[in-house]
Write the structure tokens for this entry.
Amino acid sequence: MAEKNGCTTVEEGGFQVVKVQGEVDLSWSQKLRKSILDALGKSQKVAVDLSQVTYIDSSGIAALVEGFQSARGKGQHFSLVSVSQPVIAVLELARLDRVFPIFESLDLAAQS
Amino acid sequence: MSSAATARANQGIGSDEVAVLADFSQAFATTLDVTQTVRQAVEQIAAHMNAEAAALFLIDGPKGELVCRACFGPVDVTGLRVPQGRGIVGRSIKQNKVQLVQNVETDADHAGDVGGFVTRSILCAPLTTGEGAIGALQVLNKRGGELFNSHDRDILRLLAVPTTLALSNARLAEDLMEQERIRREFQLARQMQKDLLPRREKDCPVVGINMPAREISGDFYDHFQLADGRIAFCVGDVSGKGMDAALLMVRASSLLRWAGKEGTPPDLWLKRVNDEICTTVTGGRFVCVLAGYYDPVSGMLEWSNGGLPPLLLRHPGGQYRQVIADGPPLGIVPGIAYPSNRAFLGNGSAYIYSDGATDVRGEKGEPIGIEGFQSLIDGLVDLSPRARLRGLVSQLRHMKLADDTTLMLVEDLSTQAHYLGGISIHCDAECLRLVRKTVDKQLRELAVPVEVRQRLVLAIDEATANVIRHAYKGDPGGRMSLDIWRRGEALEFVLRDWAEAINKEAIKPRDLSHCRPGGLGVNLIDMVMDSWGFEQPESGNGNVLRMIKHLEFRPESNLN
């Protein structure tokens, strides 16, 4: 649990990739939300890399859901990539694991 | 009057009459069939008095009508009804005097003839007991054209005596038999009711007791264990008393057991039984019922109340809380929904009772009410649950119990809570990490598997975040505390805040089929925890959320 919390957005293979790190909770989930919506404002293809996320709560999940719904409304590509086990566990619990497009890597997301 | 008749009239009672009297008395004394004996007696009277016909009338019904119960003669008038006071027979009863009418044509009260029989003369004697007349014995038309005389009058009066005695005894015997029959039926009903009550089980945290105000009771109680370990319980009070209330009680208790066996949530349990009872109950009857479950592992109590007095929670420190939320009694309105209540029992006690317990009169003649009932409990807290109920019964009886009374007590001292740890934080989302760290540390020490640990950490985080966002609305001055307890095989997480009391009814899981951001936290808590619920703080304002999770602890982590 020592990882620093935060997110950075990079361009990679035609995607805006939001790379998330640490424990996502109420203290900074609004920042994640803003980063995702900003990325959707810049590109038709957005991926959220969750490989370095050790914890996520419902406020973090809400940021992902909002991004997904916004992208779907505008016909944009939105996917979750390299999702860590703790995140998958919460998505399953919230029955959202079949709602989001989830890929093991950005390459696989790009091929879809 | 002929010279022979005059001679007989002057004779007094002769040996023939004594013989007839003896025969009568003997026959009446030995018979088991009074109706048959009376018929034979009427025939013998007619023969002995040389009369063409004879009849026995008895008073029947509240209007005092006379009904012919036995007769002898050419026309059968058995069953003939004569209004009260009508006819010579009516006059005989009214005046309580033998009527000797030698020529009925000159008697204005003569009611007329029946079936072609021509009445010339009537001799009629009342049958009188210490409580008044019960009927009359009459003979008609002396054979051979003779007239009834004063001797005949005395004879008939004499014969009326054993007849009255026999009839009176028969009625008494019938009354006794009827009373005995009713007594036996009530005994049977009482036994059936007793059989419906649950058997005593050693160490069962639910105990009950029922005191009928009469032979049988309109109250009932039941408890039984479900396959998942919870104990279902119910207490009922049928409106009214007596046999019909008892029959409804039998039906209601059977339905409750039937509908509660599946562990249906208490609100649906009551709804189901209410709908069933509504289809059959008539005449304004209804049933007050409180039904619910106690989970011995988590210590949680959940119940719904349809018209019974409020469930009374007694904290170990002696404070009481009445839980008033309830619905109407069962059997009145079909299809209605009942509210559901939850409370953590812990080492406290829950008292469930019919209104007989609070309606009992105190020293000043006023109902003792719930406060009076609480005082009775306070005086008996040192006793074991069953002894305490018996003590309450004894005191209520002493105060002149007016109604059926049923008491139930849920109390579980079998599992003591062990404090594991906790944390006190400011209302700051930055503190959530500390909360997660505290919970994770405790769960690691208990060797809780990683998947379960992650989920529990998530649920506690969600609950804490909800307090920050919704109870304190982000107010940085707010404080809250989390305490972790282990009780047997269950972990309890108690989250306490001092914000304004929240609307607990509004906090429910949402429908997850709608994909939308937000509102997920309660769902996550609900899915992770085995049970959760809000409690009234023991002191001060604020909110208490208790979340319970059953675990299979590894032996090395056993704290007991």
